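May I ask for a protein sequence together with how it folds?
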Amino acid sequence: MQTLVTVLGQADPITLEFRIRDSELASLWVDRMHARDSYPLDHPDRFYGFGGAKQEQDRAKCMIQQCIATINSHQHIIDREFEYTQDCLNYLHNIFEQHHGLLDQQNSDFWNQAPDTVRRALAELNIAVHRCETAVSNPKPRFVCTWFGMPKTHVLSDQLQRQHGQSQITFGTVYLNYCEIGKTLEDLANDNDKYIADDAFRPFGHYSADFVVQFHDKDLSQKHNSIQAYIDCHREFFVARGIESVYNINAQPLRFPVADLIYNDNRHQLLQQIAQRQWVREVYIK
């Protein structure tokens, strides 16, 4: 049996172990995990929903303002004052999409001319936007592990998505993390995003070693009505891309599980322990 091990906390760490599933999807993900060693863990503090609302919002606001300042110090491309509104966050995410470029098309003039610090800030703008969105939406506890600079070259086929995709989030399960440059239809509908364009809509396609561990339960099928309403509101755009219904594989709110937490069912105690150690110290497979 293979196990994913995560060590959390800078002091007095705890170790969480996850039993890796016996599935084709999990095997593909393990292969990517073995290829990640030469890339640094990106933001070991990507924990959401473990602190109070004000703590979450202050941390998110500080991060996004630092990104904006660094980006504009090179070239003033962000011309709106930051506001804690979904429209402003949608605008900033659109800036990220335009100037960062797609996974295989990072060739904008801004990207080519920017120094490494600015490129990093532009990449982190995406993380900062999602942290802000999460902070104001009563976030459910989870943490995310991504590796900076790791190429996103492997594609999850429609067949594998149909076979392994689930519309139920389960406490303690490890899922593939979305690693496209853009938003899924689920995210566009959640945000009521009006900055919709080819670069903005990116269904789940590429996968990497990146993963998210969820510490709550949720039935995602409850989102079907709002997603269908968003499709209907932007019908011409989505029909042109072969999507008329939420039941299209590129429209469904699915998650892709690869491992499950081994624990003693004392959820409250576990959540308290993680809340005191919001830092990924080590990640490995044994």
In short: The first strand starts at residue 3 and ends at 8. The chain has ten helices and 13 strands.
